[in-house]
Every structure is written in structure tokens, then in C-alpha cells.
Amino acid sequence: MAGRSLSDEELLRYSRHILLDDIGFEGQTRFLQSHALVIGAGGLGSPAAMYLACAGVGHITLVDHDRVDLTNLQRQIAHTTERVGMLKVESIQATVQALNPHTEVSAFAARADEQLLAELVASADVVLDCCDNFATRHAVNAACVRHGKPLVSGSAIQMDGQITVYDPTDSHCPCYACVFDPQVVPEEAHCATMGVFAPLVGIIGAMQAAEALKLIGGMGQALAGRMLMLDGRSMEWTQVRMARRPGCSVCAAR
């Protein structure tokens, strides 16, 4: 996608973006020429990928090993009843291409292990962590630190959500391992056992797309060094500021 210009049809499609002073023609062209890597094709990955595509991101890569299950349909809006049993990455690929045929979509039906991440993170402009387990989150974070790529991290469980940006190019910004020590193994919280409020993943996933677009377009102030936490019961946000942890095993050497 690098070097490609907006066509007349795309100028019309993205006209409401181009009207914005923060984006304009140049910003929309940056979207077109960008590559976003989305780890996880479920509740967060669905709205994130859909909004990135609608916004005009030129290349989206999806990584998830799972298949669509009937229980996913309560919140994973990129999937449909007819696609139960289908690979999630292929389901989202179909949804995204129906929304915007100009977006190139690469689908990897695999676990996001160290080897695959080394290949994919290096070629991405921004990475979105939309997965649901700590081991993968730490692996994604390590790859982003290694390759100097910004990481937009979101999570949601029960009635609570959170979102932040880990930017290894910012000397003051922590990485995921600064905030969540990889030596401490927490008890995993899964939707299958704890449940999750359906619109909550949509809210957080859409915000992940927004933060990714801001990073690509160089607009506004990213959530680097700040975490927003949403209490879905009261719809109240809490902001927590975070700093790099001295001696962090992942980012201290950078």
C-alpha cells in the first residue's frame, strides 16, 4: 500500500475524514498507506478491525487460532450465525472486505507465538492487542518493544474495561511488562466463566481503533502513559498515569 494515492472513489468515501482539520487529505493518505496488526478476532478485535477498515487503513493483518462459536455472537459483532464453526480470522476478513474492498486483509489462523510475532510486528505500523490471555499479551508486548512499534492494548471482562497505549519510542512511557510483571502469574479471567457485558467490548474495541488511527495519523494526544478504566455500571471513567519501571526485564535495556 505504500506509495498508493487515493482514488476518486476513495476521496468520496472518506470525505467526512478529509473535511477534518486533524486528518485532511494527508492524514487520510497516511491511513491508506498504513498497516495495522490486530491480535485477536473476538469481542475487541471485531469492532477494532471494522472501524480501521471503514476509516481507510490500507492493510490489516488478523491473528487468531479460534473458530466462531454460538456463544461469541452475543458480543463479537463481526461474526454471524451462518459463520458458526468458521475460523474467526476468515469471518472478520469477509466482514471487513464487505465493508471496504479497498482494504487488504491478511488472515493468520494461528496462535500469536514469538516466531509469528517477530515476522508480523516488524512490518506493522501499529499493533492492537485484542486478545484474552496474559501470556499472549506479554509476547505481543515483547515483540513491540523489540521492534519499536506502538501497542494499543484493550481489555474487558464482566462490567469493566480498560485501554492504554504502550509506546516504546517514548522514553517515559511504560511497556506492558512495567505495569503487569511477567514474573507474577495472575488468575486468568475469561468471558466463558465470568461473563462480559456485550456493548463494553464494542466501546473498548472502537477506542482501540481510534487510538491506532491517531498514532498512524500523528494527531491528538495518544494514551501513552495513561490508562483509562471504565466502570460499565455507572459509565464512569477513571484515568491512571503510569511510568516506566526501572529494571523492567523487557524495556529497561532500550
List keywords for this structure.
18% strand, 254 residues, Rossmann fold, eight-stranded mixed β-sheet, alpha/beta
Describe the protein in words:
The chain has 254 residues and is an alpha/beta fold. It has a single domain (34-241), classed as NAD(P)-binding Rossmann-like Domain (Rossmann fold), CATH 3.40.50.720. It is built from 10 helices and 8 strands. The protein has an 8-stranded mixed sheet with strand order 3-2-1-4-5-6-7-8, with helices on both faces. α4 (45-55) links the parallel β1 (35-39) and β2 (59-63). It starts with 7 loop residues before the first helix and ends in a 13-residue tail after the last strand. The relative contact order is 0.15.
Give a topology summary.
Layout: H1 8-13, H2 15-18, H3 24-32, E1 35-39, H4 45-55, E2 59-63, H5 88-99, E3 104-108, H6 114-123, E4 126-129, H7 134-147, E5 151-157, E6 160-166, H8 176-179, H9 191-194, H10 198-217, E7 226-231, E8 236-241
Parallel strand pairs: 1-2, 1-4, 2-3, 4-5
Antiparallel strand pairs: 5-6, 6-7, 7-8
Helix pairs in contact: 4-5, 4-10, 6-7
